[in-house]
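Table 4 source record.
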Amino acid sequence: MTYETIKLQVDNGFAELTLNRPDSLNAFNTQMHGEVRDALDTVENDHTIRSLLLTGAGRAFCAGQDLGDRRVRGDAAPVDLGETLDTLYNPLVRRLRALPLPVVCAVNGVAAGAGANLALACDIVLAANSARFIQSFARIGLLPDSGGTWILPRLVGNARAAGLALTSEPLDAATAADWGLIYRAMDDAELMETARGMCTHFATQPTAGLAGIKKALQASWQNDLDTQLDLERDMQRELGRSDDYREGVAAFLEKRQPVFRGQ
C-alpha cells in the first residue's frame, strides 16, 4: 500500500512505522490518522510481524495535533474536540496498548501534546538525548489528552505530573528517564540502531508470553493483589500450554538456544 503521511517497512520479523510529515513536525491530521490505522491493520493481520517500532521522520517524533486541521475560523461553530478524541486519538491509544506484541517507541526529537502521550502509550520508550517531552496543552487552553492525565501521575507521581501539565515546560530525555517516564535516553546516533535491535530481538522471542506480560502489567494498575494473583494464574495456565513454552523448557534442559515461533 502507498502512504503519503507515514512509512511502513517490515523486515527481520518486525514492522517499523514512521510518522512522515517532517515539515509539520509529524503533527497528526485526519489523513495521517487513517494511514496509521491502516498500517496497524497490516501489523495485526500479518502473523510474521512480532514487534512494532514507532518513530518519526526528521527532527521531531510528533508535535501532536495539526492545529490547522482544528482551527476555529471567525464566527464558525466551535470544533468538537471531544469527537476528535473519540474517533481518532482514543482508538489509537487503546489499540497500541492492546496490540498482542511489544511496541517500542523511538523518540527522535520533540514529542509534544498528543504526540508525547502517544509515545507514552507504547510499551518501551527510548529517546535520543536531544528529544523533549512537552505537555503543551495548557498553552492553548486545553488539558492533556490521549491518556495524558491518566498515565503521567502513574509514571512520575502527582506533583511532577501537575508541574508538567500546568507549566507546559519541556522535559529533556535524560530527566524523563531519571523520573521513570521512559525506559532509556541515549546518544542520538545510537537511537535507531538500539530500537531496531530491540525489535529484532523481540521478533525471536515467545510472542504470546510477551503479550501476556504486557496485558498483566497493564491490568495491575487497576487490580488489587488478589485479583492480580488470579489473573496471573489464569494467564500462566494458558501460556503453559503453548508451543513456545514447550520449546523454552526443552532448550533450557538441552542447554541450547530456543527457537520460538510465536505460538
